[in-house]
C-alpha cells in the first residue's frame, strides 16, 4: 500500500499537460481513424479531445481543414457508445462555426434529438441549434416545443437555453415558444424554471406592458426555484427604478417579502435590490438588518456579501450603516482578508475623525497581505477620507506615500497617485505635502505613463506653490536619468515654471538650452519651441502657447487631419476640432472589486462611423460639434424619430434616427421633407432604403448655413415620408404588391446659438482673459427676463447660450462668466449680471469676440 501511495505521489509530481505540444497537422491526419469500419471509441474520443483543445487554445483552422474535420467527425454517428457520441456533438458545435455545408448533419441530429436515449437528446439539441440558420428553424420548431416541455430536466433545460441563444437571430420564432416556456416555469427542477423565465422575459423585452403583467402574476404565485426568484426580483427592481408612483408599491412589497425566504441567495438578492432602490435610511432598515446578520454568518461568502453591500451604502447612507459598526469591528480580524478590507474601509467611511488613526493602524497590519485589487479599495477609501477630514491630510498623505513605496502593479500605483493628486487639488493646505511625496516617488518610478502624469501635475501646480524652486531639481533629474517620453514631459513641466514664475526664468532658459542638445528629437523640439516663446517675453503668447493650451479631442483631431489631407488646398484650423471634455469623476462605491476603466467616448466619436457613410462628407471639412438628440415624436406612437444636429463650419447635417414600432409593416424609401428658414439651402438628402420592425436606421439631410451668422437662428418643420408595405408579423416577410405612400408630421425643432458654440465655464483666470480681450469688438444690451427667480433666469440664459450651469456664481446677484468657440473657429467671451426687481429679473449681457457678428448673435439668442 505504501508503495502504491509513493507511485501516485511521484506521478503527481511529474504530471504535465498531455496536450501541450500538439501539432495541428498530425491531429488532422489522425482523423482518418474515423473512417475505419470498426471504430475504437476510446481512441476516437482522444482525437476529438485534441481537436477541441486546439480550437480552444486559439489554433487557426482554415475553412477547408475545418470542413474536412467536420465531415470526418460525422462518420462517428455509426458508433452507439455514449461518451463518444457526446464528444461528437461537442466537436460538431465548435467546428460548425468554421466549416462549410454543416447543414448536412441536420437529419442525424434531429433523429438523436427525438430518440429515446436521453443522454443523446440534450447534447443533440444544443448542437442542432448551433448549426441551424433562421430559414431552417421552422422545420425543427415542433421538436423544440416538445423538448421544452419534456419531463427530463436536462432535455428541457437544453431546449430553453438554445431558445435563448436563438432569440438574437430569430426573435419572432422564439416568441412563439412562450406558451411552452410558461408551462415549465413551475418545474420542480430549479434550472429548468430559471431558463423558462429567461425565455419569457426575453420574448417580452420590447413590450413593457407584457413584462409588467408577467412580473405581477409571478410575484403572486409560488415559485420554487431560487434562481427564478432572483431573476424575478431583478425584474421587479427594474420596474420600480425611477418610478415613485403608487404603481410600484406591489413590487416593493414583493421584494421585501423575499427578505424572509429560506434561501440565502434570494434573501441577498432582495437586500441588494432594496439597497439600490430606496432613498432614505428608514426604507433601508429591513435590508440593513439582513446584511448585518450576514456579517456574523459562519459562511465566508455571506460575510463577504454583507460587508460588500454595506460598503456600497456608505457613500449615500452612512447613518444607515452606522448601526452595524460592532459587527464590522468584529470582521476586522476575519481570516478572509477580503472581508477584513471591506469592513475597515466601511468603518473609515462611517466613523468619526477620532477613530481614523486607530483604523489606519489596523489596516497597516495586514495591507501587505492582500492582493492589489483590495489595496485599491483601501486607497479609494482613504481618498474619500481626505475629502471628509481635511485636517487629517498629513497622516493620510504619509500613509499613501508609504503604500507608494511598496511593491505593486501599475493600476495599484496609479490609484495611489490619483488619491494624492486629488488631495493636492482639493486641499490647498496639503499641496506642498502631496507634491513632495510625488517628487520622491518619481525618483524611482518604473512606470513611464505614471511618471509623465506626475510631471504634468508638477508643471501645473508647482508654479503656484509657496516655494516653486524646490521642485525644479526633481523635474530636471528626469531629463538626465529617464527615457525619452519622460524627458519630454520634464521639458514641458520646466517650461511651465519659466512661464509663470518670472524670477526663475533666467535659470529655466539655461536648462532649456541644455535640453536642446538631447539625443531624442521630441525632447529637442520641445526645448527649442519653449525657449523661443519664452525669449519673446510676450505675456499673451506665453499664455496661449504654454500656460493655457487648448486640448482638442485626439480621435477627432486625427480624423480632421485625415480629411484635410484629402483637400489640402484649404488651411487647417485646429480650433475647429472639438475640445477634449473633462469628464468629472463620479463618486463610485468603494466596493468595486474588479477595477474596470470604461472607455470614455465623446458624442462626436459615437456618431463618427455613421456620418462616414454620407457621400462627399469629407468636403465639409472637420466636424465642429455634435449636439444631443432631440425627440420629434412621442415615445409610445407608431414611428419614433429624433434628430441629431452635426455642426460644421458652413454646413449642418440633420441625422433623423427612425424606429418603426409596428411589426406588421415595413417602411421603404424613408426620407424627411424639410422646410428650412430663409437663407438656408438643402444640399443633399440620404434616405433610408428600408426600415424594418424595431430596428433603428437613419435619414441624413445636409443643409448649408446662411452667409450671415445672425440669420442662422430659426425653426425647421419636418415631415417623415415613406412607402408602407404590409408584412407577416411573425416572419417579417413582406406581402406581394408595391405598397402605398404615406407621411407622418414631426415636431418643429430649432437651430439656436447653443447648437453652434462649444462653450465652457470661466476658469480661475477668467478675469484676466476678459481684460486681455478689451480691444476686441464688444456687444452689450440690457434685458428684462420673464422669470421671477434670479437662479431660474440664470439657468435659462445658460441654456440659450450653451453654457454649463457651473458658469453661474453669486447669491442675490447672479453673474455668468463663460466663453467658447463659435463654428468656424471664432473665440467668444460672455459676461452677464442678473438681479431681481419688482418688474422681474434684469440682466446686462456683454459679449466679446474678434467677429462682431458672433457677439451680436449671442445677444440675439437671448432676446
From TrEMBL:
Q: Enumerate the Pfam families for this protein.
A: Adaptin_N, Coatomer_g_Cpla, COP-gamma_platf
Q: Main location per UniProt?
A: cytoplasm
* Gene Ontology CC terms: COPI vesicle coat; endoplasmic reticulum; endoplasmic reticulum-Golgi intermediate compartment; Golgi membrane
Sequence ranges assigned to domain Clathrin/coatomer adaptor adaptin-like N-terminal in this UniProt record = 26-536
Gene Ontology MF annotations: structural molecule activity
Q: Spell out the subcellular localization from the entry.
A: Cytoplasm; Golgi apparatus membrane; Cytoplasmic vesicle, COPI-coated vesicle membrane
- GO BP term (any one): endoplasmic reticulum to Golgi vesicle-mediated transport
Q: Does the keyword Repeat apply?
A: yes
Q: Which UniProt keywords apply?
A: Cytoplasm, Cytoplasmic vesicle, ER-Golgi transport, Golgi apparatus, Membrane, Protein transport, Repeat, Transport
Q: How does it sit in the membrane?
A: Peripheral membrane protein
Q: Which residues form the Coatomer subunit gamma C-terminal domain?
A: 755-862
Query: Per the record's keyword annotation, is Transmembrane included, yes or no?
Result: no
List each copy of the Coatomer gamma subunit appendage Ig-like subdomain domain by range: 606-751
Please state which protein family the record places this protein in: Belongs to the COPG family.
Its biological purpose is as follows: The coatomer is a cytosolic protein complex that binds to dilysine motifs and reversibly associates with Golgi non-clathrin-coated vesicles, which further mediate biosynthetic protein transport from the ER, via the Golgi up to the trans Golgi network. Coatomer complex is required for budding from Golgi membranes, and is essential for the retrograde Golgi-to-ER transport of dilysine-tagged proteins.
Give the quaternary structure.
Oligomeric complex.
Give the protein name, as stated in the record.
Answer: Coatomer subunit gamma
